[in-house]
Amino acid sequence: MLKLDSLFNFMGVLLFFIFVLISQVNPKADPQITPPGNLVASAAWPAGAIDVDLWVSAPDDKPVGYPNKSGRVWSLLRDDLGTANDSTPLNFESAFTRGLPDGEYVINVKCFGCAGKVPVNVDVEVRLVEGGAVWTGVVTLVAEKQERTAIRFRLRGGKVVAGSASSVFKPLSNVGGV
Question: Contact, 41 vs 94, CB < 8 A?
Fold first, then answer.
């Protein structure tokens, strides 16, 4: 009888140590994900063989888009070509800043490969990682190769300058030999 009680006690202690060991091998993930930049611009458009390009610019830097994926401030995460080289139906591009120099920022979208599929409604969002949404809206592209400004605004000290936001067109995709 004593041997059976000892065996059960030993098994209980062994199971406890196995449980503790397993819980340490695969600890719970921290739900906080640190964004890769200070300002995020994103564009999403309907599924299918539609190629829309996100173009962004920062003060005193050349525009960033598909042929020039990185500058001093902006970096384009991925050039989404629609269904080409893609395993999902999601059409989405995003860019992130490293730092927030004072001056004007411009966010454009361009209908690069939309022939026969226009109009294309592009959902655009610009968000300060510490400060929330700068602008959210829909830009409608109605012609092949059309480029439109979603938003342009000024930052000072990491904050949007009041009254500086507009959607007055400023071309980015054909600037500076890009």
Answer: yes
pTM of the model: 0.77
Residue 14 to residues 9, 10, 25, 36, 61: CA-CA distances in angstroms?
A: 9, 6, 17, 43, 62
Per-residue DSSP letter, 156: E
Nearest in space to 91 (alpha carbons), one of 111, 63, 115, 67: 111
Rounded Cα distance, 169 and 164, in Å:
14
Domain ranges of the chain: 39-160
Give the count of beta carbons closer than 10 Å to the beta carbon of residue 20.
Answer: 9
CA distance 72 to 122: 26
How does DSSP assign 91-139, residue by residue? Answer: EEEEEEESS--SEEEEEEEEEEE-TTS-SEEEEEEEEETTTEEEEEEEE
DSSP letter string, 36-56 = SSSEEEEEEE-SSS-EEEEEE
- For range 99-116, the mean pLDDT: 92
Q: How far apart are CA 102 and CA 60, in angstroms?
A: 10
Q: Cα–Cα–Cα angle for 77, 81, 84, nearest 5°?
A: 125
Give per-residue pLDDT as tens, 22-36.
555 655 555 666 667
- Cα gap 122→105, rounded to integer Å: 19
